[in-house]
Amino acid sequence: MARGTAYGNNLDLVAKGIGLRKQIAELLGFKSWAHYITAGRMAGSLEAVNDFSDDIDKLVRLLSVPACASHKRAAPDAPPSLAQRRAANRC
């Protein structure tokens, strides 16, 4: 089935939905939908979510560096193993 033939172009609907969310958030006094939605959640704010995400990202990168550095090919001409390809994608 060709793209956009069954129900029209869904990307237009997604864009409209994003625009409506932005309008709702602004009408309620928030900078964005993300600010609005996190204000009532345990996180409390978008900034808290971003800080937590940054901390997790730093920790994962810190812990994954030694593992990535230890994956070496058996022979210079040998193709990388599946484990090596997966490890490379995590770095």
Helix/strand layout:
Layout: H1 10-27, H2 33-39, H3 46-70, H4 82-90
Give descriptors for this structure.
mainly alpha; 91 residues; 2 domains; flat; 4 helices
Unreliable residue stretches: none
Number of structural units classed as domains? 2
Shape: flat
Terminal Cα separation, in Å? 37 Å
Order of helices and strands: HHHH
**Beta-strand proportion:** under 5%
Note the main sheet. none
Strand pairing plus helix content: what structural class?
A: mainly alpha
Helix content: 55-70%
Query: If you compute it from the alpha carbons, what radius of gyration comes out, rounded to the nearest whole angstrom?
Result: 22 Å
Number of helices: 4
Q: Tell me, rounded to a whole number, the average pLDDT.
A: 80
Folded structure, characterized:
- The longest helix is centred in the middle third of the chain and has 25 residues, at 46-70.
- The model has no long low-confidence stretch (mean pLDDT 80).
- The chain has helices at residues 10-27, 33-39, 46-70, 82-90.
- With 91 residues, it is mainly α.
- The chain has four helices and no strands.
- 65% of the residues lie in helices and 0% in strands.
- It folds into two domains: 1-40; 45-91.
